[in-house]
Amino acid sequence: MLQYLSLFECSSWLALTLARYCRLVPPTRELQRNSTVAWASQPASQRHRAGHAPIPWVADALALLAGIGLGIAIALGISSESPSLLSSPGGWFDAVGRLAALTGTYLMLVMIVLIARLPWLERTVGQDRLVRWHRRIGGWPIALIVVHVVAVTLGYAQMTKSGPFHQFWVFLRNYPDLLAAIVSFALLIVAGVSSARIARRRMKYETWWVVHLYMYLALGLAFAHQIVTGVMFLGHPLARGYWIGVSALTAGVVLTSRVILPMIRNARLQLRVHKVEEEAPGVYTVTLKGRQLSRLAVSGGQFFQWRFLTKGLWWHSHPYSLSALPRPPYLRVTVKASGDQSSAVGHLRVGTRVLIEGPYGTFTKHARTNTSVTMVGAGVGITPLRALLEDLPGDIDVSVIIRASRVEEIVHRDELEALVRARGGTFHELVGSRHQVVLDARTMKQLAPRLAQGDLYICGPEGFTERVVDVARRLGLRKQQIHYEAFSF
Ligand SMILES: Cc1cc2nc3c(=O)[nH]c(=O)nc-3n(C[C@H](O)[C@H](O)[C@H](O)COP(=O)(O)OP(=O)(O)OC[C@H]3O[C@@H](n4cnc5c(N)ncnc54)[C@H](O)[C@@H]3O)c2cc1C
């Protein structure tokens, strides 16, 4: 049921209704089913706002800030200990337990900030890397909270001269204040287990996501437990104030970037499905119409989180890259039916309301290091390349290589070809079965002779991308020259 508590969803509805009520947003007129947008021939409007460039120092600055914050938290924690506390029975166990809890909870806050979808962090580091960092830190809070539970139990057992199991039972039965902490601990373990690679593979994405929502509840309960019972906060107003400040700041960051900003943007954009067309077998192009799209700053190659407000889809959002730069008042994505949500996209009705979050991603012209670019795409991975191609400066030398089993599977084929031709680049299609047509080092060198001197952008199925990256590395490209977008986190 918690899925229905999606903050973003509820608040976006509220904002749209309020905006309508206050007449900030006029009602959208009935959409024309048959009107067409000439994506290929019509250049992206001059009025389209260019995407923001990454801010190179932002990740280092944030890491420094997080490190300083942790240092202050630990220093305040240590200063609240005293020789008498430490020398009492079980004193050292308790102290270790308290510091472990403090550090573990702080790291949980850092993990939350990493996936809070802060726009400037997203466009500098990229969501895939942020998710990787989030996962990498993930084991530590769990380990530290386990240390906290074990150490505090041992400490109290020493103090009361009883066994640890008996002491744990006493905690459960006689300490009502600890209930919140125990529930929080259980939720943390469930989230940790569900995040293990093996469990994630067996779980539906939506199930995993809902389980993860419980982490916010776990943090809220842990916060209450710390502030009400934490020895290092009782009688230490500075430590208490600091901890409340850090927690409130994290909550504010999440609320602003996940709720308030998307709410304002969606109330302004008023996006609705304008047209759905079958692009290739099982691949649908969805054109959306909205207001003030010229104010949407986005780079070719970036993606948004899309939430289609229909009965079965409204509660979960999915990432899809733009398949062309916006042409106000239109926006476009191309979606391959692969699971529940993406398959339902092909059946969306004209006029369906759509909410977006973003833009996100670093697979853009800003990642480029040279004046020559090679693009390699396959499957629905062609879509961000199509938008990126449109966004590259006119003087860039471009080679595009598309891999497909059948010609009909190449999405936006004519548009790609026209765009490449218009800029005097080269366009190659490698069509056939994997065994007959191989994209190896020799073929790559033949098709893109300047590959090693330029940048390589790849987007396609996971195995395909890995193979192309491997070939590129063997051909001498440095890591900084290779850019790819993975279609799963
Ligand atoms: C950055 C990015 C850009 C993408 N761009 C496109 C695009 O332009 N066109 C296109 O057809 N597909 C794109 N995808 C893939 C698309 O998001 C998934 O195919 C879609 O979410 C599958 O959802 P489902 O319910 O249909 O399938 P499910 O069976 O629920 O999911 C299939 C797999 O898709 C991934 N997935 C599902 N939901 C999400 C989510 N909310 N966030 C991240 N991964 C998820 C998971 O790996 C999951 O195992 C992109 C993915 C990413 C990460």
The portion of residues assigned to helices is 40-55%
Structural class: alpha/beta
Q: Averaging pLDDT over every residue, what do you get?
A: 88
Shape: elongated
Count every helix, treating DSSP H or I runs of 4 or more residues as helices. 16
- Cofactors, ions, other ligands: flavin-adenine dinucleotide
What does the secondary structure layout of this molecule look like, with pairings?
Layout: H1 7-21, H2 58-79, H3 83-87, H4 91-114, H5 119-125, H6 127-160, H7 164-174, H8 178-195, H9 197-202, H10 205-229, H11 237-269, E1 272-280, E2 283-289, E3 303-308, E4 318-321, E5 330-336, H12 340-345, E6 354-360, E7 372-378, H13 382-391, E8 397-404, H14 413-422, E9 426-431, H15 441-447, E10 455-459, H16 462-474, E11 482-485
Parallel strand pairs: 7-8, 7-10, 8-9, 10-11
Antiparallel strand pairs: 1-2, 2-5, 3-4, 3-6
Helix pairs in contact: 1-11, 2-4, 2-11, 4-6, 4-11, 6-7, 6-8, 8-10
The chain binds flavin-adenine dinucleotide.
In a few lines, what is going on in this structure?
With 489 residues, this protein is an alpha/beta fold. The chain has helices at 7-21, 58-79, 83-87, 91-114, 119-125, 127-160, 164-174, 178-195, 197-202, 205-229, 237-269, 340-345, 382-391, 413-422, 441-447, 462-474; strands at 272-280, 283-289, 303-308, 318-321, 330-336, 354-360, 372-378, 397-404, 426-431, 455-459, 482-485. Helix 2 runs antiparallel to helix 11 (237-269), helix 4 (91-114) runs antiparallel to helix 6 and helix 4 (91-114) runs parallel beside helix 11.
